[in-house]
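Side project, low priority. Logging it here so it doesn't get lost.
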Amino acid sequence: MHFLNSRKSIFILSITICMVTPAIVRAQTSDEAYSLNKLVTAAEKYMPSLQQQRALEGEAQANILDTKHMALPFLKFNAQTSLGSSNSVRGSYFPMGVAVSSSGSVTDQQLYQAALGDLATLYSEYDICTFGLNKARNQNAIAGASFSAANYNKSVYQLKIDLAKLYFSILSYTNLRDIDKQNVERYATIDTVIQSLTRSGIKPGSDFDQANAELANAKISLNQTNGSLEQGLQLLSAYTGISLDSLNISNRILNASTLDNKLFEDSAMQSNPFLDYYKSNNDYLQTSVAVIRKSYLPKITLVGSVWGRASSYDADEKFDPLYTGLGFQRFNYAAGVAFIYDFMDGLHKKDKIAESNFELLAGQEAYNQEKLDLASATTQANMQLQVVLDNLKQLSVQKKSALAVFNDKQAQYKAGIVTLIDLTNAGFVLYRSQVDYLNAVDSWYSASLNKAIATGNLDNFIQTIN
């Protein structure tokens, strides 16, 4: 599934956006905290790829009207004035390509003298019976517009998923930065204490060197976290168009003592844009098959024409002055009904329908696979949520205990009861317990998000994240 990646993969997969999209623009107050819902709204208005999808959706809607107009009568006017020879001979020919004019008389010699002539025609065709072809085309155009809308909705849904993952990743790095800062402050305090004890001769100089090494390591971890956080904020700016200086996201974190599963209780399956996309595609393919079937049926067409003709070559086979060929000397009209059918259409229809049926079968299987993947993702998310909820309660106890142990070891070290190794080990255990707790919180958000995605409740979930 496209939404089961880790929080860090969103940076790797999407970093190109940062390189090609300007991180611009709208002035915002720097103290405004952006909720996930506000960020999604900003991205929907800003992302050029979504505007492109919206334009394609408008094109599909316009195609509905264009398809309806295909059933209008064909009406064409043609007028011409020509100068040239006018010879004709008896005989028949197949009207392949452009047939030369044969408006002159049949004579026993080749005449090279030119004649001037006028011709104007008004010709119309109207399919009075297409055996359902027009209706099939209209339904196909409507299905195409629905598919285009479903494609847009799927793109919006995917954007919301990417933004939610990025948002939670930024929250995680923000809280990790706070933990790293606390770790640096702890080792800075230890370093200060050891420096004082070393100068007084109570502790050996090696303790001071070791403390400096631990402090440097803590600062390196903080620098790496700050880099990852800045990278996430830069990517968020590229998604939303909000300037980097204006982005302010609160460091929301869960508390195991008050945590339950009420943040996202709605697990009932809703309409899912991923499934809707495949369903709309199949509907479009089905209407396309109907168009193919109707396209190879006969047509009954009403035809009519009115035309006027003039020539400087008269009925007595004399070439009058050229100006006599201007204007119209004779008028004619004709109307009729044409029945049109290609006897090879049956074979062509069979071939085209066979192709379309395989395409439709592939679309149906893609829908079935997506439905299966979403159901599996829901089950996995429920299992992960239960495990995370259980672990968070234990990790909360572990974090409090680790803090108590560190405080005790710090006091014991000052009293000379334990070594610096004991103190740094306690510091590492405290740092690790805080990070483990944060990772569990991150897993809870990830599992809740995956559940919301799979069940189609993503919008409701986003609304709950303030």
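Brief comment: The first strand starts at residue 74 and ends at 84.
Revisit when time allows.
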